[in-house]
Amino acid sequence: MKYIFYFFSFFLSLTAGAQDYTSTWEGMFSYHNVSTITQGNNKIYAAAENAIIEFDMATYQTQTISSIQGLVADKITAIAFAPENNSLIIGYQNGLIDVYNIATKKVFTIIDIVEKQSISPSNKKINKLYIKQDKLFITTNYGISVFDISRLEFGDTYFIGPNGSQIKVLDICVFDGSIYAISQENGVYKATEDAPNLIDYNQWQQISATNNKNIFVFDNQLYAISQTNALVKFTAGNFVMQRQFSNEVTSVQPDANFLTLSFANKVILINTQLNNQLEITNLPGLPPNVSSAIHRNGQIFIGDHNTGLHKTLFNTPNNLSDLTPNSPLYNDIFDVEVSPGHVWLTYGAYSLSYEPINHARGVSHYFDNYWTNIPFDDLGKTRTLVKTTINPANPNHVFIDSFHQGLIELENHTLVNAYNTPFNPLPSLLDPQYPDYRSVRVNSGYFDAQNNFWFTLTRVKKGLYKLSPSGSFTGYDMSDIMPGLEDTNGGFSDLVPDTSGNLYFGSKSGGVIAFNPRTKQFGRLAGGEGAAELPSDNVLSLAMDNNNQLWIGTFYGLRVLYGAGQLFTNANVKANPIIFEDEEGVAQELMAGLSIFAITVDGNNNKWIATEVGAFQVSANGQKLLKHFTKSNSPLPTNTIVDIDIDPITGMVYFATAKGLVAYRGSATASAQSLANVRAFPNPVRPNYEGLVTIDGLMEGANVKITDIEGNLVYEETSPGGSIQWDTRAFGKHKVASGVYMVLITSEDQMETKVTKIMVIR
């Protein structure tokens, strides 16, 4: 048997044409961290990490542009508007550039810089984009490149450092027939704009050794902002200081009347006499962290790293309007938890060795198409909030685990209990070197049928706790099953139940732990070849599927335990790999060698698996690959998926990453209790539709027959869960003709029937 990752291999490839995913995906990126702003065609564009906010000054409408529309979704470092092409140009930290056509909403991705082998990855960052007619000047950490926007073609690249070396160019502008470029450490360079051989570094003359960070034209004069935050003017071959600022200038935007300067805590508009015309200090955020600002037609638009995009008026500068799209607090997500209609995000974190990362962050809750962000201060200032457990009996009641300060309880977004004081019954780990150090590390929870809340604690003898509805805590000593637990740097991962109410949770170095709440008995599955056959005792994720089989995700691969209850009676239980045959008939192991960060079971008992090479959907038994989403074939902003969860009613699949949340409109829904709400969609099936027809609202095991109007059978399937899909073909062969097709549904016990119709138009 070969332990290789063959069937699910992937290749990252960059293509020029980007795909629009709006029909099947939804972007849920955060827009609270705005880094830069530009304008064009009566619209304001703001870069928010890896997506764009578009504000129409005529209609006052705000829209977003993200990987759902085809953007690269990497970290944006520069944007510019090309008026003659009606396009927004977006530059990224990794050297990629997107050209987004405003009219057609099409994206063209420029890959040339990324593919340059002679340039190190660290030098490919796009620093600034400067547009003159059809010509785009791109400043980078290696020099300057030129791109023809109309023809979508790269031109020359200028290495302007000493002897043609690569140097970091921060900004560029064209003035009075010359190109001026500023480098971080080599001063200011100048070249004649129409010189025939600008690729010759001798054409670029160093005209000043002064180190600046911005260069621009204002009031028909050439200015710069120095590294020491002085406003300097180029006069008689020298840069002469005009004004000195005491705070760091974070951005500069000139227009016909004013020079708009932003600082972390204020925005200043300077007139052509270089005097302050307006100063804005009443800014959001405690404290504010302004990244950029721009003035257009009496309106000032302000971007902040924490609070997003805002607008104020020249005549009433202290009255700000919030233009930030409703969105989660952050893109850097640690955990997503979903129940019907509800999505919760947490942003705390711990390392792979289960050491807490000290984040002071709030949490986000999505319900009824609206994000409610609960700030850190409203959560008892509880740090390192890592996971949410939603009460199935009351989705507005949640517990949120802190991997440093215990446990908090919310109801209707209000903190009702905080179990994070020295007087609560939850024990802290003990550190002999620091006896006063207190760290209560809670991770993973579960509500049982009696509404008891179960959760795990790290580095204490009683590693499993139960909180009753009356508020009493009961701890269970794990010393016998895992000796020395309180002395290690270990931790516990997912906590899941089986159909008998037994609990299972993963550990960093002890495999899988099982607990029977009725007998108070622990069990354990640990060890590699010759023992439990786990590829690693570092268990990152667990999922109990609809057949009561335990799927185990480890640091080095995947296993399944059939009949997990054996752990209480059989000391020789072994986990099983999923083995399939590849196209050549060679036996392969599913997910061999991969770190499995999350496993989620959908309504049809298929498994969604989060890895560092994308997200996989495999069939109920793991023998068939159904989907493999990566950054190259989906709007995922990265291939590393930290968590996956599914809305059992809608089938929506949520993918949490360190670069944002995206959701896929899946079709597998949970089994219904009756056939009353059966539906088929899309309906009618129109001529240009090439996808699948979904029939949901089904009971598990229901028989579904599809016939033409004359009663001829064209398709039949038994529902594995709450839905099936039909490819509009007669048993997978030829496409059926236009007409009305009857869907005849019978429950497994034949006590219920349902008839619906599908119209097919060819």
Q: How would you sum up this structure, described in words?
A:
This protein is an all-beta fold and 762 residues long. Among the domains are: 159-244, Beta Barrel (Thrombin, subunit H); 331-490, Methylamine Dehydrogenase, Chain H, CATH 2.130.10.10; 497-542 and 560-592, no CATH class; 597-670, Hemopexin (4 Propeller); 679-760, Outer membrane usher protein (Immunoglobulin-like, Sandwich), CATH 2.60.40. Helix content is 1%, strand content 47%. The strands form 18 sheets. The chain has a 4-stranded antiparallel β-sheet with strand order 1-59-58-57, with no helix packed on it. A 4-stranded antiparallel β-sheet has the order 2-3-4-5, with no helix packed on it. A 4-stranded antiparallel β-sheet has the order 6-7-8-9, with no helix packed on it. The longest helix is centred in the first third of the chain and has 4 residues, at 112-115. The relative contact order is 0.08. The model is unreliable at 1-15 (pLDDT under 50).
